[in-house]
Structures are given as structure tokens and as C-alpha cells.
Amino acid sequence: MRNYKFIISYDGTRFYGWERQPGKDMTIQGKLEEVLKKMTGTTDINLIGAGRTDAGVHARAMTANCVLDTNMTESEIQEYMNRYLPDDISVNEVRICADRFHARYNAIGKTYRYTCWYGASKPVFDRKYVTVLEKKPDVDEMQKASEYLIGTHDFKSFCGNTKMKKSTVRCVDNIKIEESGNYIRFYFHGNGFLQNMVRILTGTLLEVGYGNIKADDMKDILEACDRQRSGPTARPEGLCMMKVDY
Amino acid sequence: MRNYKFIISYDGTRFYGWERQPGKDMTIQGKLEEVLKKMTGTTDINLIGAGRTDAGVHARAMTANCVLDTNMTESEIQEYMNRYLPDDISVNEVRICADRFHARYNAIGKTYRYTCWYGASKPVFDRKYVTVLEKKPDVDEMQKASEYLIGTHDFKSFCGNTKMKKSTVRCVDNIKIEESGNYIRFYFHGNGFLQNMVRILTGTLLEVGYGNIKADDMKDILEACDRQRSGPTARPEGLCMMKVDY
User: Which of A141, B49, B191, B221 has the lowest tally of Cβ within 10 angstroms?
Assistant: First the structure.
């Protein structure tokens, strides 16, 4: 019995998110556990992911761990998993790790990217990985608004679960907004993110970009600790989990 | 009545190729003509493409032309078309052009790219635009073999239509093979390409890369003017029409 660490990419389009759910066949965790059960011949498989991505959200490097009873080498495990997983889930790395390693509890930072696109043509080749905007938002205003979000705050205004009982305090230490051609990419780095938080942050910044919310109002929105005050939850397809720090 | 030039991108995955075909709803030309008919309120629409891509082949900049009777501006036409076309076809440019402009007859050069991928993981995000190889081919040998193909030759050995009655002489003036990470990209430039020609050239070069054909045998294969001598037709999904020169 050894503990294994996995780095996983997936196109979330077809899935109900990361988390295994009774009665829902199409979840990332479910698909991965199914293959691990087949591989080890046991039903006792519990794959722990660093986070739970929403339905339709993608990942370039989700980290997960699982205790397995197998004689296969790391590369044999990777090969087996990639052979039996669907085309939209890839295992990029398999490594034996410390017994005490826990992909969720040991995560100290995460990077998410949210990709938007605008223009007179259409993003044919990455249409499943971008959110198409009707018009170009003001990036300088969004950048200005994002500065109020940096630091350790109660992000209750940006939490999709309004009945959240646990602490809604998180530290966001970097938000970068990059323009490149017809793309606008938001990068968020922090010690952790609440349910839908990156999508609500993006949705609120876009409202600033369109002039519907003033950049300076971001401080009040944050302090209100009220989901009613922030902007809409941006669509899932633009979001991608990029990296987990340990 | 004016002649319009169009630059079009498409993800060919869902389509039976460019060319309109009776009884087949899913062709690129068919979808475009359908929208132009709706837009102009006539059934007399004949969209001329620079070339006919095969089923499953993509394009970043297919060029086409069509005579239209409309009062709409170029950008109104583009907006209308992009609104009614499916997500996997985009009109990137619409311009009034000379009456005598003919997208097929006036084309003097074309660039195609063929993208391959190999590795222990899987290309999740561009899986529809690459051909996955079982192992890495020898790029130096493929480059060496490709040099025999440069120039004006009878490419009958590389023509998918073995009953072709017209000339099978074409000029290929550049073949470049680029490695980048786990990707190998073949670029082909020439004055025109026969049916399946880029895919058969790629399939034959890959056989060289795997050591099943010697690089120096390429000369004989070309001179044989016999489809039996060349390699298999590489899969369509790795192929993309990149540019048409006028």
C-alpha cells in the first residue's frame, strides 16, 4: 500500500465537475476512480483532489493523491490510466509520494486562469475554453478594481454558497489581467478559493470593465460581505485550474 | 451585384469536408451557402472555395468568393454570417473584391500544416487538431526525405484519386518540419495539392521517421508514379489549411 500523487489535465466540457456524485456518471473524480478500481481489482479507492472544480471548468494541472495496492511502476500506472480514460482526461504524472501527503490539506496555493475573447470573428479552435464577450471591457479599470481584492479578506461577497458556515476568509496575493490579441486573460493566485469565487470575481471585474460598477466601489462590495452586492458568476468554460502549490 | 471575398476558419471535425454534397447537410460550403441564401433571400448562391478540404480537415484561413446582391456593408455581412453560422465556422473577413476575382483559379500558392503529437500524457485541449503518434519518429530522417519532394514533380504517387485524368504535376517549394515540446509540425507550401496529397506526403514521411522507408527511397517512390509505393494517408484531424496566396 503506497500513496501516489497524480497531475491531471481535463477538458471539463462534458463533465458535472470534479466531485464524484451519486447517480452522475460524468465526473472527473468518478472516471479516475473507475479506472483505478479496474486497475487494482478493488472497490476501495478514494482519490483526493486538491480542489473541486465546477461543472464545465477545466484543469491543466489538478493534483490528486490516492493510496493504491499495486505492483505496477509509476509509468505503467500512467500508461494504464491514459489507455482507459476518455480523451478529455489525461494523467500527466504519477509519483510515489510520502504517506502523509494529502492533495487537499497540503495545498498552500492555487493558480486559476479565466480566458475571455471578443471580436468580430469567432474563436473556432478554442471555443470550449474561452468565454466570448459581446464587447471589449476596459482593462485598466478592471486592473484598478482588482487591486482592492489583493490581500487577506473575508470574501463572503464572492462566495457562491450563501449558507457557507466555515470561514470565508482567504488570501489572494496576485491578480494579473493580460491582453493579447482578442484575448483577455485573468490570473488569480491565492491560498484557496471559495465555491464559484474565481467566477464571481471575474464576473464582477467584467462589470467594472463595462462601466456598470466603478473600480472604487470594489472596496465597499468586499466589505459588505453580501453576495447580492457583487457581479454575476462568469460562465464556467473560460475557467481553468492551472497549478497547485505545496 | 458585387463580388465578395471571404476569409473563413473552421473546425472540420463534425463536417464531411468543404464541398457541398447532395443529401449531406454537414459540409462547410453547404452551411455557408445556407446562411448567404437566408441573408439575401435568394437561392442562387454559388460560393467558390480556394480548395476542397477533406472530411475532418480544418482551416484557419480558407479563402472563398461569391457574387451577392445586397445593400449590407462588409461588416454587417460578417456579423450576420457569424450570428447564424455554427460555433465551429467563423467568417474572419469580408471584402468587396474585383469582379474577376476567383478564389480557386486565382490561387497561386497554399500553405498546409500537419500537426502530430506523441508522449506519455494526452493532448486534452487540442485533441481534435492533432494526430497522436504511438512513438516519436526520427525528424532528421524525415527532413532528409522531404528534400526529394521539393520542386516541380509528377506527384501521382501521392494522389488519393488513382483515376485522376488531369495533370498530377505540382510544384512544392517548401517543406518544413518543426519540433516543439511533444509536437511535430509539418508545413507544406506549394502551388497546389492533389486530393489527399498532404496527408499521403505526411503518412509517407512518418514511415521514414519510423524506419519503415529509407529517406533515400523517396526519389524512387516519387518517380514510380504509383500510389502503391507511397505510405498510408495520415488521419485528417492533424491537417489544417493555413493560408492561400493570390
Answer: B191
Of A91, A125, A129, the CB nearest to B121: A91
- CA distance to A77, B28, B190, per residue, from A122 (Å): 39, 15, 28
Which of 3.40.50.2300, 3.30.70.580, 1.10.1660.10, 2.102.10.10 would CATH assign to domain B2-96?
A: 3.30.70.580
* Residue B88 contacts residue B172 (beta carbons within 8 Å): no
User: Rounded CA gap, B189 and B215, in Å?
Assistant: 20
Q: How far apart are the first and last CA of chain B?
A: 23
What is the band of B164 on the pLDDT scale with cuts at 50, 70, 90?
A: confident
pLDDT digits (tens, 9 = 90+) for A55-67: 999 999 999 999 9
Cell readout for A240 is: 481553468
B109-117 and B183-190 beta bridge pairing? antiparallel
pTM listed for this prediction: 0.94
Count of alpha carbons within 13 angstroms of residue B237, beta-carbon side: 14
* Domain at B109-245, CATH class: alpha beta
What is the rounded distance in angstroms from the CA atom of residue A145 to the CA atom of residue A98?
A: 41
Residues, chain B, total?
Answer: 246
Minimal CA separation from A9 to chain B, in Å: 7
CB contact under 8 A, A120 and B82: yes
Chain A, residues 158-177, CB within 8 A of chain B, namely: none
